[in-house]
Design a protein that fits this description.
Order of helices and strands: EEEEEEEEEEEEEEEE
Distance between the termini: 81 Å
């Protein structure tokens, strides 16, 4: 084991640690900062550019003026699902600024959630198929599969419909014509 004593009037020592609690649109950023005995502020920079050339910054946190490393965390919300984000911890004191290594995490890509509803407007040869699709934040297309086999082993499909990329269920319908009576 070893240790390094703080240098008086030196910039903070920083380490970027792995992100935790990563979900479809949220993550917790982690790092450690040694203030090196000067009043120090710490924050995170993040974005989708792997160089963090134009990063977004979290609000600065005062971490004191001690001589030992302090854990720093910040929660991000509203992230884009299925996206790689890059981040680092940054700290400043009266002696200067220090930037940690750039790390990355991937928000979770969740498949769409679908609900099939009952067919409506059923006639001898026609029917309207109904359902709901929640894209769960990712660009989504949807279609219906149908056929006379209850397991839909070899189904026919309606054309794809663009649903979008929101987080709310959206109705989808499609009309079938020329069906066999009975």
């Amino acid at each position: 084991a070893s240790f390094t004593t703080a240098l008086p009037n030196s910039p903070p020592a920083v380490t970027t640690d792995a992100a935790t609690f990563v979900t479809i649109s949220e993550a917790v950023l982690n790092g450690t900062v040694n203030p090196n005995e000067l009043a120090t502020m710490a924050y995170f920079e993040y974005g989708i550019d792997n160089t963090l050339a134009s990063p977004i910054s979290t609000l600065p946190q005062a971490i004191g003026a001690g001589a030992t490393s302090v854990a720093v965390t910040d929660s991000l919300t509203g992230l884009i699902p299925g996206t790689t984000y890059y981040f680092r911890v940054v700290a400043t004191n009266s002696a200067g600024m220090s930037e940690g290594a750039i790390l990355s995490f991937d928000t979770v890509a969740q498949p769409p959630t679908v609900t099939t509803a009952a067919a409506t407007s059923i006639t001898t040869n026609d029917a309207t198929l109904n359902g709901t699709v929640n894209p769960n934040g990712l660009a989504t297309d949807a279609h219906f599969e149908y056929g006379t086999d209850s397991t839909l082993t070899s189904p026919m499909s309606t054309p794809d419909q663009t649903i979008g990329d929101g987080f709310a269920g959206q109705s989808i319908t499609d009309s079938l014509t020329g069906l066999i009576p009975g």
